[in-house]
Each structure stands twice: as C-alpha cells, then as structure tokens.
C-alpha cells in the first residue's frame, strides 16, 4: 500500500466508508474529515449565503489542527489513509463564497500556511449527480436533507476541473457508479490490486472489468 493514500470525490460518493474499509484491510491509520463536527454545516445547507463563510472557516481551522497534529505526532512515518485532501477546502470555497468572502478566506488560508506532503496516491471517486442524490437520501443524514442536485452538479464540475489539471500525485480515477468496492468483494479486490500495483501517474479503473 502507498504510505500516504487519499480518497477524494464529491458528497455522497462513499469516501469515508471506503477509507474505513481500506484502513481495516491494510491495518493503517485513518485521517477523517469530521464534517459532523462543523456546527455551521446544517445552517449552510439550509441557507448557503448566510452560513457559507463560517462553515468554510471552521473547516479551514479544523484542517490546520489535524495536519499540525499529524506533524507533531510524526504519523507520516506510518501508513495513513485520509478521506480528504487540503486542496478541497479551496475548491469548496470558490464555489460557495462571494468575491469579498473568498478574498478574506484566502487571507486566512495564507496566514495558516497549511502544508502537507503530497499523497503517494489519490483515489478519485466519480459518480453522476443522480447516483449521489440516491446515496445521500439513503444514508439520511439530517444536515444533508436539503442538498439540491444543482449544488452537486457544481461540485462535480469543480472536482472534474480540479483533477483534470492535478499532477501533484499519482491519480487513480474510478467510476463509483459502476464499481462498488463497499458492497462487492470482487470490486474491492480489484481496487486493492490497482492501489497496490505501480503504473502510470494517471490511471483509470475500467468498470467492465468488474462485471
């Protein structure tokens, strides 16, 4: 397994559940986003314009504490799997904040000087909006009940654009609508094979291989 592995993708795609299973398989440490700790998140989903800035700033300070804790504990000497990468905060901020709020956010971001080593591999889970909406509805988290398809579409487009240009780490792109490593052992074994093997810096997991 890569020493530092990140699983990323839009809301509802199954990042955290997959990280938990991978960590159990590899007996690795986990770093989880902890979105449920954000007291502004439900308010953001109910009224994005009113709560976007405090929600983003909370996540930013939370990330700072998490990464500083990792550095102090020297956890990067161990295998680590995370369900987020630092760059995602800016991605969400660019979607949710207006011009003045984004400028303030950037000032705070620069003051915190957040730094993390590049992952040895990023697993990017993709899924269409209708699949994400079904999964969000199925897991029935109270703070997510007001999420709309239009917002998920903007988020998916932002992720697509971000990873189109991403070159900081090797990237494994997976169609999570067709491959289900959480519920199908064959798909999970296939994912483990791709994670554990070397290959080009940008790889794709072909859905037809799991049929």
From TrEMBL:
The keyword Nucleotidyltransferase does not apply. The keyword Thylakoid does not apply. It holds the Pfam family dNK. Gene3D superfamilies: P-loop containing nucleotide triphosphate hydrolases (3.40.50.300). The active site is at residue 83. This is Deoxyadenosine kinase. Residues 5-195 form the Deoxynucleoside kinase domain. ATP binds at residues 9-17, 135-139. Keywords: ATP-binding, Kinase, Nucleotide-binding, Transferase. It comes from the Bacteria. It comes from Candidatus Thiodiazotropha endoloripes. InterPro entries: DCK/DGK, Deoxyribonucleoside_kinase, DNK_dom, P-loop_NTPase. GO terms for cellular component: cytoplasm. GO terms for molecular function: ATP binding; deoxynucleoside kinase activity.
């Amino acid at each position: 397994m890569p020493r530092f592995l990140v699983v990323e993708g839009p809301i509802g795609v199954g990042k955290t559940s997959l990280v938990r299973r991978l960590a159990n398989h590899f007996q690795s440490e986990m770093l989880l986003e902890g979105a449920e700790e954000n007291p502004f998140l439900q308010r953001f989903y109910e009224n994005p314009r009113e709560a976007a800035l405090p929600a983003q700033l909370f996540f930013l300070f939370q990330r700072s504490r998490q990464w500083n804790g990792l550095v102090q504990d020297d956890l990067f000497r161990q295998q680590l799997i995370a369900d987020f990468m630092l760059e995602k905060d800016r991605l969400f901020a660019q979607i949710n904040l207006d011009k003045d709020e984004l400028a303030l956010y950037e000032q705070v971001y620069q003051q915190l000087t957040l730094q993390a080593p590049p992952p040895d591999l990023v697993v990017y889970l993709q899924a269409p909006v209708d699949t994400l909406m079904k999964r969000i509805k199925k897991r029935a988290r109270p703070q997510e009940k007001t999420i709309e398809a239009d917002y998920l579409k903007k988020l998916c487009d932002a992720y697509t654009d971000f990873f189109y240009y991403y070159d900081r780490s090797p990237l494994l792109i997976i169609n999570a609508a067709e491959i289900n490593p959480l519920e199908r052992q064959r798909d999970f074994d296939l994912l483990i094979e791709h994670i554990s093997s070397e290959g080009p810096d940008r790889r794709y997991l072909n859905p037809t291989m799991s049929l």
